[in-house]
Each structure stands twice: as structure tokens, then as C-alpha cells.
Amino acid sequence: MLVQTGRKPNYIRPKVTGATIFFTVALAESGSDLLLRQVDRLCEAVRLTKVERPFAIGAMVVLPDHLHAVWTLPSGDADFSVRWGAIKGRFSQSLGRAGFSPPLAEGGGVNPALRRKGKAGIWQRRFWKHRIRSEADLAMHLRYCWQDPVRHGLVARAEDWSCSSIHREMRAGRVGERRSVVAVRMAG
Asked: The CATH number of the domain where 41 resides is what?
């Protein structure tokens, strides 16, 4: 929800504890392949954040310049923004330690102090989210995650994309040619 207060917009995210939420998180540089080249660093950032602030991943797919995820937060917890901030920060810091420097942004560049800290130029500042409201909504967003590499023309079949949680679901027998995606429940 966007609330106008004075000159700057104030973004207010609804506080629904224990919610299941679909996210799209993108790099600042559209068309980059950074997430695929550094997918191990991204996975480690997610793993460390889950240890610190638990959440269940119902689905996740990493594409070259963006990712989609379906999370369920613990009961009594609505703070997904802190989790995404931690994941983005850990990923950026890991890249910085490896010597990666984000490209200069068009129209003025990046604040040099933020660049030195490895906190600028990699991610878009905000992310898109949608709270899941029903089993049908969940099934639709799980399919969206898994089919996005196909939509982008990266593979012919969802199971051909290696950076997708569909493989976990297939190994567990929760998804497959004859199984309905509606049967998939939130898994850690």
C-alpha cells in the first residue's frame, strides 16, 4: 500500500504473521547473468538467513537477473523485509569479498561509500510481493516459479532448469507429470 505523506511516498507493507508470500526480487542491471554465475553465493546467503531468521521455502527459482520465491513465515512473524535485506546484503558482501564491483549506474553512478561497502548497484531497492490467499493461489504461484525459465525461453521444460526447487518437489513425489501441483504444501 502506498501512502502519501508530504513529499515522499511511504510504502506500508501489511503485517500478516505466518503468511505465505510470493516474491520477485531483481538485480539493478536488467539482462545481467550475475545470479546464475554466483548462484552458490546466493544460496549461501539464503541458507545463513534461514538459520538466523527461519522461514519455509515453498518454491524458488533463480534466473539470470531475477528470482522468484514462495515463502511461509513462522507463526507470529511478519518480517520478510528484514530477511530479504539480509539475503541481499550477504550476497553483495560476498561478491565484494570476491572482488566484484557493481557497474556504474547511468545518470550519476552509485554513492562511492555504499560501493565500498558492497551495498549498492547490485539489487533493485524494492521487491514485488503478493500474499497467498488460497490453495488455488498457492498452486498458481508455485507453477509460476517453476515455469518462468520456460517463459523466458531458457529451457523447453521446467524440470530442465537446474536452479529451481521443482527438483526437490519431484524427488519427494509431490510434483510430476501425473501429480497436481495443488498437492504441494509448504516444505522447509
From this structure: 3.30.70.1290
